[in-house]
Amino acid sequence: MRQTRLLSATALATSLLISTAAFAQTTPAQSDSTVSSPATSDADQRVDQSTTGDEIVITGSRIRTPNAESVSPVTSVTGAELTQTARISVGDALNDLPQLRTTLGSQNSITGSLGLRGITALDLRGLGTTRTLTLVNGRREVAADIINNRAIVDTSAFPSDLIERVDVLTGGASSVYGSDAVAGVVNFILKDNYDGLALHAQSGVTIPWGDAGTQLVSVVGGKNFDEGRGNIAINAEYAHQSRYYASGRPDYRSANGFVITGTDPAGSVNGSDGIPDRLYFRDIRSTTISLGGQLGFRYGNAAAPCGLDSNPNTAARSAFTCAFLFQPGGSLTSQTGQRVGVGPNGSFIGGNGYTGREGQLLTLSPDVQRYAVTALGHYDFSPAFTPFFEARYVKTKAFGSSSGPFFSQGQTLGDGVAITGFSDYSYSNTNQTGTNVNPVNREGIRLDNPYLSAAARGTITSQLTAAINSGVNPNTGTAYAATAAGTTARNAALAQVAAGTFRFSLRRNWLDLGIRDEFITRETFKLVGGIRGDFNDDWHYELSTNYGEHDETNEIRSNINRQRYLLAIDTTRNAAGQIVCRSQIDSRYAGVDRGGNPAQLAADIAACVPINPFGEGSVSDAARQYLTVNSLASGKATQFVANGFVSGDLSQLFDLPGGPIGFSLGGEYRRETLRYDLDKFTQSGYAFYNAIPSFRAPSFEVKEAFAEVNLPIVKDLPLLRELTLTGSGRVSDYKGSVGTVYTYQVGGRYKPINDLMFRGDYAKSVRSPYLGDLYATTSQNFATVTDPCSARNLANGTTYRVANCNAAGRPSTYDYVYSASLEIKSGGNPNLQAETSKSLTLGAVYSPSYIPGLVVSGDFYDITVDNVISAVSAQNILNLCYDSPTLNNPFCGLFQRAGSSGGPRGEEAFRVLEGSLLQSSANFAKLKARGVDVNVQYNHRFGFGTLALRGDYTHVIQRDNYTNPLDPKFKDVVTGELGDPQDLFNINADLKIDKVTFGYGFRWIGRQYLNTFEDYNSVNGLPPQNTDYAQIVQYPITTYSDVRVGYDLTDRFSLQLGVNNIGNTIPPFGLVGSGGGAIYDSRGRFGYISVRAKIF
User: Fold this and answer.
1) What pLDDT shows up at residue 37?
2) What's the pLDDT tens digit per position in 752-761?
């Protein structure tokens, strides 16, 4: 009989490995979940769960064990813990764990890349959201970030009231789960056998401002039937988060931050002259843009009618621009306030300038609405045959501005239309043959613009004349050469001013035309179906398929038709004295159609509506309708997974001294597709939006086989209460460039006494390139850069930088500062290989029998990711070009600079040309993370009540990026920089006494450097780079406290009141909770009420 069962089991295991039928991985059902009292506190649940003895499956393994003792560090968070602070996304609650970097949450998703509004993603160890594998019941989820071509999962789509627990596993787990488990795994375990009907409603708002409101309503219903053999459960959920603005908050209404007030002389020791380069100011006003239009006239230092800056580095002092602002109605006035910073622009403190936070300009959190329905069920026909299913549909609507209104600064749009034969241009330029053609930049405003008042024209004329006579171009600050040609050019500019044909730069944020809001709709559908069962006494099998589909549309409203803008901004009067577009009466100003369609250009000219650019409120409805357009992007990602496995033990054959050998064998097939579409109008470059070409990537496919073993070597001996070894392996055959890869894991746990366990784990994992990494077409993008060849940056590089910049043709006076981002090109690489990681974890768990309910664990982790897929950043491309021994290196060929006469889009001499820099991904980088986690849990029932206490602490020993392709050992230290503090600590406590539950949460965030670690520390054999970067070195320690009180009104109804961030702690030194500052809470004090009801 025993032999027969074993043979049948062997046959089944073999069939699973070779079958092409649908397979899927899952975590088998946990202990039964029924609807208990709605007031059953987190304290009760955590005590109950700590004492359960059911056979379970631990995240990181498919082998069932009678305990939860994993060889890998696993942090488990109950579903009740995730919902007790009234978050509308469980991912936001998880991001409070020290192990997770707050990279992308539902609040801070307002900033960063396009298309991210409302997404909550997880980032273990700060190694990237794409290197954390997110699972539900052990199964993969479809990607939710189509526009940015990243395989990240939106955890806000998961049903909060159906979550039993979440396991967070540190270390590579690709041998168990496949690709992407490089930093670790986060596995959401849903409740099984849910029986009852419950309602959960919550609402919250900030105190005292009354904004940033959230609401959530959830209904969960489940029913066991046929004497408990079957169960079906359904959850419906609605959640809403309101948008709120900086202008509505006293703490954010003014722009506060650090202003560059000095530069270090070349050759300064440690890049420092001992005087802070930046000082902190409140109420900073822009000198480069405004809502009604800003003018900044450049002067030579000798004249400097608006003063020289006070740069302690006197050799680098520069004349401030003379700044003027257009007021509503078109009048022109001087900008007021205290002038600080370095020239030519500096900043104003106070006064009448622009903060960038007026009205709806700065959104602190997007508006998000989510509708979700989840259903799951199973029926036990027999212990060996249990069909099951899981279905989920989620629709999310999110909107919020990603980049504010359209803006222009005189050369933002890169017009550069070459028009010869007449003098009408103030930015001298060259064409591709090197001939000076003086093209007209129609974005510049002509002095004879008919909308310009006589008074304003007089002021501008005086400023232009004086600036030119001081020896510089008033728009660019470029000095006229002290030659006959330079004198001729200066006289020509004066003649243009006198004739009214000189074009000056108007710098304006066009709020009159509307905010370019993103309106995003996401629809995610997932369906899992399969069978599972037990056989051969203690063997288990599962077969299933998993299909996921994510559809997304992104409508960008109040976008600008750039071609029409250039036509409408260039105005004159016709013979009848009417203001018209210049191109309508002079075809030389028509330009060239951006999409290569002359008929479209002709139609745009015929329909042209002139625009008044002077002063807020100056745009007519007709001009607004002519200029604005809505852009539409859409995409779809699909994922199909077939998985099968069998697990059990070999007790029917033999046992080791420590018990039976456990095993798991299985196979998996996965296929993914991705497409992205952008409307043809925007693709053609007409709109003020990233022109990302449409693409349909070839399908991604992988076939895999995996195995796992658990070897209990010995147990119940003196000083050898348990010694168990584990191992797993996976072979993956990828379609395309990746090919065949192998992953593995070995580990073990050792108990010298029952109270103490040591554990360790070593694993190799992989992350295959995503479809977007491989096949994204080259598209327009933007990067914030500093020019390594600017005078202020020459001393910040290698010893080669100065010589290379000079050899490249750097003018001796070149000191360009980018006031806006640089247009670049980026795309995919079909030859990418898989990333690989090696991870080591070592730890101990202490559960003293003399203190029931206490568990203390400490774990060391060491993760190295090699062959990392990374695009050399635009900044690094520039730096590596000039910091290499010679200019003969691959990076100098990835961009172009303007010649001595400027660039085709009006770029200043020697500046990097807009749109010339090319980025693409390659396997060259390395990531390193090492640290220690400490977890303390104490769950106990006393005579007076129940206490549940947990503390989580993470100390980061090392977090480095190696992103220099020329020097693989050159590291960028991330530890201690903004968003990556060295120390993080959380406490969560609940005490239930009779019908009342008191809860307290505490979060401690360590200090973080204001800029880079390298500024203040010696790295790569180099001295500190800039020890006087600012007047402070680090952001201070920050703490948050949350309090809550729950009360059982009856056995069926409970009420909870709470306040998060009760001390109203806001991000320090002007941060607003975006980027690296997302680690801080920007919302402030937040009060909420939560009601739970057990209907039956």
Assistant:
1) 42
2) 999 999 999 9
Contact 278, 261 (CB under 8 A): yes
Q: Confirm if 674 and 637 have CB atoms less than 8 A apart.
A: yes
**Digit-coded pLDDT (tens) for 434-450:** 333 345 677 889 999 99
Exposure string of 328-342, with b = 16+ CB inside 10 Å and e = fewer, is: eebebeebebebbbb
How far apart CA 515 and CA 150 sit, in angstroms, is: 27
Q: Is 46 helix (H, G, I), strand (E, B) or coil?
A: helix
Domain-wise residue ranges, the chain: 2-185+365-403+516-557+633-664, 255-356+407-509
CATH architecture observed for domain 2-185+365-403+516-557+633-664:
Beta Complex (2.170)
Three-class secondary structure assignment of 1035-1096: ECCEEEEEEEEEEECCCCEEEEEEEECCCCCCCCCCCCCCHHHHHCCCCCCEEEEEEEEECC
Give the residue from 862, 866, 861 showing the smallest Cα distance to 837. 866
Q: Residue 42: its pLDDT value, please?
A: 58
Band the pLDDT of 20: cuts 50, 70, 90: very low
> Which 8-state DSSP code applies to residue 831?
T
Q: Which residues pair with 733 in a beta bridge?
A: 703, 740
In percent, the amount of the chain with pLDDT more than 70 equals 91
For residue 73, which of 1065, 970, 952, 990 has the smallest C-alpha distance? 952
Residue type, 513: L
- Look at residue 41 in the predicted model and tell me its pLDDT: 54
CB atoms within 10 A of CB 653: 11
Q: Taking a C-beta distance cutoff of 8 angstroms, is the pair 74, 169 a contact? A: yes
- Alpha carbon 189 to its chain centroid, in Å, reads 26
Q: Which residues contact 566 (CB under 8 A, 6 or more apart)?
A: 413, 415, 442, 443, 591
Rounded Cα distance, 312 and 317, in Å:
8
d(CA 1013, CA 981): 11
- CA of residue 1071 relative to chain centroid, distance: 16
**Burial (CB count within 10 angstroms: exposed 0-12, middle 13-18, buried 19+), residue 579:** middle
* Residue owning tokens 């004329």: 461
Q: Which residues does residue 933 pair with via DSSP β-bridges, in sequence order?
A: 859, 954
Q: What is the mean pLDDT of residues 269-276?
A: 90
CB atoms within 10 A of CB 395: 16
For residues 116 and 145, the answer to whether their CB atoms sit within 8 Å is yes
177 pairs with which residues across the strands? none
Q: Show the beta-strand stretches assigned E in 115-256.
A: 132-136, 139-140, 163-170, 184-190, 196-206, 214-225, 230-241, 244-245
Taking every pair of Cα atoms in the chain, the longest distance, rounded to a whole number of angstroms, is 108
Split at pLDDT 50, 70, 90, the class of 35 is very low
- Residue range 700-709: average pLDDT? 95
Q: Considering only residues 905 and 310, tell me which one the structure prediction assigns the higher pLDDT.
A: 310
The token duo for 642 is: 């077939």
Q: Which amino acid is at 301?
A: N
For the segment 728-777, what is each residue's pLDDT rounded down to a tens digit?
Answer: 999 999 988 789 999 999 999 999 999 999 999 999 999 999 888 888 88
DSSP E strand boundaries for 498-538: 503-504, 508-509, 515-535
Residue 217: C-alpha distances to residues 155, 198, 214, 1046, 1048 (Å): 18, 11, 10, 18, 19
List of E strands, 963-1037: 972-973, 983-993, 996-1005, 1008-1009, 1034-1035
Mean of all residue pLDDT scores within the chain: 88
Q: Which of these, 67, 132, 71, 49, lies nearest to 97 by C-alpha position?
A: 132
